[in-house]
Amino acid sequence: MSSNSFNLEDSLTYKLHSLAKLIDKHADYADIRHARISFAEGRVLAVIGFNNRLSVLQVAKKANLDKSQGSRAVVSLVGKGLIEKRQQKQDARAFDLSLTEKGRLVYEEVVALITHRNEIAMRTLSAEEQQNLINLMNKIQHNLENN
């Protein structure tokens, strides 16, 4: 593709980044005022809640955060009583993370926000189009993970 025919706004990476930013605007975890959680904390809470029990490294990877961002979010969520750390039996230096009862309640609110955000993003797509989009994104993810 020559630079004359290149359209930045039609490139996959530009479009995905723009969509991610627009979707993030609808993920205002400040709506969960009683929990006072940041965007990164909301993602960590969602990942732990969905997977039940994970290590800090697994949480950071699944939440698409770097290790330091993930660690800061975990420390904050532990301090707020939303997640708990349990030492792993096979490695005394490692911890498993899980939701507390209070964390489970906030997780349900986070899930509601994520669901609402997804509904807004996909409301004009038919069920078949939504499934096609997910399938195509999975293929792209597979291509990038296995490159």
From TrEMBL:
InterPro entries: HTH_MarR-typ, WH-like_DNA-bd_sf, WH_DNA-bd_sf. Coiled coil: none annotated. Signal peptide: none annotated. Residues 9-142 form the HTH marR-type domain. The keyword Nucleotide-binding does not apply. The keyword Manganese does not apply. Pfam families: MarR_2. The lineage of its organism: Bacteria, Pseudomonadati, Pseudomonadota, Betaproteobacteria, Burkholderiales. GO terms for molecular function: DNA binding; DNA-binding transcription factor activity. Keywords: DNA-binding, Transcription, Transcription regulation. PROSITE patterns: HTH_MARR_2. This is MarR family transcriptional regulator.
